[in-house]
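Reagents: none. Just compute today. Molybdate transport system ATP-binding protein.
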Amino acid sequence: MTLTSDATTKTEPGQEGHALTAAFIARHRRGPAITADLTLDAGQTLILFGPSGGGKTTILRALAGLHAPDTGRITCAGHTWYDSATRTNVPVQKRGVGYLFQDYALFPHLTVAANITYGMRRARRDHRTRKLAKLVDLLNLHGLAGRKAGQVSGGQAQRVALARALATDPRLLLLDEPLSALDTPTRAAIRSDLRALLREVGIPAVIVTHERAETYALGDRLALIVDGATTQTGPVADVMDHPANLPAARALGFDNLLPATATAPDTYQLAGGQQLHLPTTRAGKTVTIAIRAEHLALQPHESGDATPADGHTLAGTVTDATPEGRLTRTRVRMPDGTTLTVLTPARDHTPPQPGQAVTVTIDPACAVVLPA
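Predicted 3D structure written out:
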């Protein structure tokens, strides 16, 4: 369907409850259909989370007006931006969106000031001057306004790009992996600054990321995007800690997925015969127990010692241990051939050796029982 562009946004009755509602289907470069189903309240930040290539950036571009969906509807603050039924498609310049590109897309030959005010070229000079001063102060860009954008650091470039996105007083902020271009120390510092800034300006924002730390730090709500589909939405902690199915668990970073049989409401038997007692129930005999690597504890296990029969501890053999800075990632082979991944602080123990007998204790409060 060919859509016409609407000169103005249309305010619709009954749409005032959310800052953003978006339900649409889009395709990108003849790829699979991408299905979005999003809601966002005023002042909140929504995270689009999921593996790379899942369609997150396409959804962001559709919200901005840079990519037209095939069908569906997008409204923001009561204004209809896209509606396939009425052939409405408001152009990007009339949506009032602030967009922070993944690579920031600054003009390196222009000054920081010129980059920030680029979208305000038709505004009065005194207005541009006041807005520039306010944003320089808000984003701590003092002393950089006259410098060429190609001469600033990565962290400074991120703040310049964010200032440019805020300069036009947008209805909605769209940030595409805003911290991915930064080194790890800078990313950690900017993460806290960005959260504080989003709270201060109070503009609803949608952020694309596949990093869990950024999701917890920046988001109020989370939409999980897997293979082009919005598979789960809700408050960040609810979605991150309670995947609805196996694909969601994999996308959310549950390293360990253990096939099991439910033998009682709180008892599950693994393939090798070991049993786990978990405070959860799941209809059906065959299940999968999902748990993240950081929710397992590792202890040496002397040969001949019995494994504690507490329903939370499993015995196995170390296959390899990989240092990851302050953490150690250890893989443990169970008697049935299943491999568990355990992530523990390196300072807590001597790195285990391949072939070493160990016990792995599960935090039952962090285990999720899913349909197989």
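The longest helix spans residues 184-201.
Action item: order primers for follow-up constructs.
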